[in-house]
Amino acid sequence: DTGVSQDPRHKITKRGQNVTFRCDPISEHNRLYWYRQTLGQGPEFLTYFQNEAQLEKSRLLSDRFSAERPKGSFSTLEIQRTEQGDSAMYLCASSLAGTQETQYFGPGTRLLVL
Amino acid sequence: AQTVTQSQPEMSVQEAETVTLSCTYDTSESDYYLFWYKQPPSRQMILVIRQEAYKQQNATENRFSVNFQKAAKSFSLKISDSQLGDAAMYFCAYRSDYGGSQGNLIFGKGTKLSVKP
C-alpha cells in the first residue's frame, strides 16, 4: 500500500485554461474527498464520493469545477476557465466508511494561475 | 454550522520541552470526532491523534496526548519531549457523526509550531 497519490504535484497555467488533477486513493478505501487549501488557511471541503457516486458538493465548488470517480477507483478534478482565485493547493483524501473512519491525505497538487 | 478555532497562529518550543496547542470548536451535535493533523513544510498531511466525543478518556499516542473538554468544547494537543521533526503546521479538525453526514472534515486555520534546538 503506497498511500494516496496525486498527479501532478505542481501545475502552472494561464488564466482561462482548463486543468485536470488526478487522485489515486488507498486501494480498499470507498470514500474519496477533495479539499482546497489556500495560503495560511486550513483545508476546505469541496466534494466527496462514496464508491462512484458523488454524494455532496460544497458551495465552494462553482460550476467551473467538476469531479468524477469512474468505477469507484481514481478520481479527477477538472477546473474549466481557470481564474487567479483558483490558485491553491488541492488535496485529496481517502477513507473506509465506518465508525472508525479516518481520512488519509495525499501530497496535494499546487495550482498557480497566472 | 460547525466551526473550529485555533487561536495561536504560531508557537515555539525548545527541544525536549512540552508544548500545548489550543483548539476550540462550536457544534450543537453530541456525537462527533476530533482530530489533530500535522502538515510538515512541503509534505503531506498526516494524522497525529483522534478522539471520539463519546469517550471520556483522553486519547494518547506516544508523545502526543489531548485534553478533551466536551462541555467547554475544547480539544488541546500536548506534545511532550518535543523533537526537531515535530516542527510543522498543526490543524485541528472536526467530523460530524450525525446520521447521513458526508463525513467531511472541518479544519481550523492551523498553528505553526517551531522547535528550537
List the helices and strands and how they pair.
The complex is a heterodimer of chains A (114) and B (117).
Chain A: E1 5-7, E2 10-13, E3 19-24, E4 31-37, E5 44-50, E6 53-57, E7 65-68, E8 75-79, E9 88-95, E10 104-105, E11 109-113
Chain B: E1 3-5, E2 10-14, E3 19-21, E4 24-26, E5 32-39, E6 46-52, E7 60-61, E8 64-69, E9 74-79, E10 88-96, E11 106-107, E12 111-116
Parallel strand pairs in B: 2-12
Antiparallel strand pairs in B: 1-4, 3-9, 5-6, 5-10, 7-8, 8-9, 10-11, 10-12
How would you sum up this structure, described in words?
The complex is a heterodimer of chains A (114) and B (117). Chain A is an all-beta fold and 114 residues long. Chain A contains no helices and eleven strands. Helix content of chain A is 0%, strand content 49%. In chain A, the strands form two sheets. In chain A, strands 2, 4, 5, 6, 9, 10 and 11 form a seven-stranded mixed sheet that branches. In chain A, strands 1-3-8-7 form a four-stranded antiparallel sheet, with no helix packed on it. Chain A starts with a strand and ends with a strand. Chain B is mostly beta strands and 117 residues long. Chain B has strands at 3-5, 10-14, 19-21, 24-26, 32-39, 46-52, 60-61, 64-69, 74-79, 88-96, 106-107, 111-116. In chain B, the strands form three sheets. In chain B, strands 2, 5, 6, 10, 11 and 12 form a six-stranded mixed sheet that branches. In chain B, strands 3-9-8-7 form a four-stranded antiparallel sheet, with no helix packed on it. In chain B, strands 1-4 form a two-stranded antiparallel sheet. Chain B is globular. In chain B, 33% of the residues are buried. The A-B interface holds A 4, 31, 33, 35, 40-45, 48, 55-56, 91, 93, 95, 97, 99, 101-108 and B 4, 35, 37, 43-47, 50, 91, 93, 95, 97, 102-110.
